[in-house]
């Protein structure tokens, strides 16, 4: 994954496996061995949806509850990003009917789950354009910062989209700070050339 990220021109990669945490030693070894920025995170499956978390080091029972997870992340001084928010909230076929998509969007906009996060994923590399558009519209409705992640499950999916940061990110602490301050935005690398401060997620 790391070598593929380097080949497509990314500056770093966030490893966000489901409900599994990388150790500091593993991350340090990967970064040193490949001379590349590797940042640890985790994608937690909660009752309200999937959440990308940064700053935690292990899974604890109860993290499937959004409130419990938020308290854990806050205690650790970390950050949360709602992953692919269109899931569970946007159904393509009914959305074609007049007014139905707006109802879905307004319902999602009132979900307290999104208020717990520092932002949401506006672009998912494996999401359909119509699904990602719903996420972007939701982010605009909520007036929150949006990220992008390749959500890569295969090597060829790496680098399709990425998050661009306004300031340099040299490690986990920098990433958390930028997420907390909302200094980031999504970039579709299938349409735009890669710039120099982009991080993919897988």
Summarize the helices and strands and which ones pair or pack.
Blueprint: H1 2-7, E1 12-15, H2 24-34, E2 37-40, E3 42-46, E4 49-54, H3 66-76, E5 79-82, H4 92-95, H5 100-109, E6 119-124, H6 129-142, E7 146-149, E8 161-165, H7 172-181, E9 184-188, E10 198-201
Parallel strand pairs: 1-2, 1-10, 5-6, 6-7
Antiparallel strand pairs: 3-4, 4-5, 8-9, 8-10
Helix pairs in contact: 5-6
- Percent helix, as a range, is 25-40%
Coarse morphology: globular
- What is the fourth-level CATH superfamily? Metal-dependent hydrolases
Mean of residue pLDDT values: 93
Low-pLDDT regions: none
Largest sheet: 5 strands, mixed
CATH topology: TIM Barrel
Overview of the molecule:
This protein is an alpha/beta fold and 202 residues long. The chain has a single domain, classed as Metal-dependent hydrolases (TIM Barrel, Alpha-Beta Barrel). It contains seven helices and ten strands. The strands form two sheets. A five-stranded mixed beta sheet has the order 2-1-10-8-9. The termini are close together.
